[in-house]
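Need long-chain-fatty-acyl-CoA reductase's 3D structure for a figure. Predict it.
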Amino acid sequence: MPQNFDALSYRVGNAQVLAQMAHIKPRVPFDDEILEFLQTFSRTLLALAQSREFSDVVSLAFWCRKSALRQMKETYASDGILMGRGVVFHIAPSNVAVNFAYSLLAGLLTGNANIVRLPSKKFIQVNIICQALNQALEEHVAMRELICLVEYNHEDEITQAISAACQARLIWGGDRTIAHIRKFPLPARAVDIAFADRYSICVINADYYLAAENKMRIAEDFFNDTLLTQQQACTAPKLVVWTGEKDRKAAAREQFWLIFDRWLCGRPAPEAVAVVNALANYCRYAAEDPRLKYIAAPTRRFLRAEATAVSQRMLEDHRGDGLFYEWLVDDILEIVPVCGVKCQTLATLGVPEEMINRLIFRGAPKGIDRIVPLGQTMNFSLHWDGYDLLKMLTKTLAFKRG
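Structure prediction for long-chain-fatty-acyl-CoA reductase:
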């Protein structure tokens, strides 16, 4: 286990904690002492004034309230004897602010000690969360042995050393990062969990939207799912699919984007580089398919492009930054070709259950791991990306009584 690498800096924990992690005894999932610590962390996080400026930080705090975790514990009741695997190495994505914290919570709730490599991009949210963790650890000293949050650049020897000492590794970083990290072997019985490049889709029923009285709230939900992360999260829809009669879809789209733009006026304007990137990506695909129609907007806060059909490649190559493809369909089965293995989440607004069933059971898409209401795409759970993290981060003891 690395102890003295000059390039390693500690935001939570220290070199001594890191060195001793290999000797830590695993705990049972939803250990009472860990739940008490997370309750303190939640309370501390909510008490920090700066937290209220970031909806993703507030959501994190609510996610790990004691009542929510106890309810989660009941959901995951098991007949077997489960124990944490030992040390879990979490490699956070560079472009999403709070993902590292949810990964850490998954490791703690499954009874493990955790080493987290923080995002390389600087986020204020990371500072807030680290501050709350350090304050909570002052009240729960016994928890210090379970948490080490570190920063380093591209020193492969550090990644190699930690990988060699862990019992599970979570790679949140896309296909190229996964391929690189997997060059560094794990112990023979360790588990490697990789969260590859994915994209997500939103489906909106025009009739439902037109009848909705809470259109500003819908705009906020759409923002939280998409532009809160500049569409960098795999959960962030890049494609908006409209269902319903032709005239109803036209009316719903006009209202939806107008109200969304109005809601965004209360937010900071996007950086110029994001606007340029969105336009460049649109132009690249418009050059290949002249049918991709640019739709003018009153501001430059986002960019819309209507397509007669959307390919998987368009969504796989999507770079975020506020570019939204729109697709008007007559039959939900039309979207099956873009629901391949790279498709992670389907966000829905007012889509009838029978339409969803038709898509899943008749269309039989190879992808789609989650179907959630609009506004909930970033809601983390221990079932993520098709993985049951409770099972994968624990070992089951087979105990046959004589």
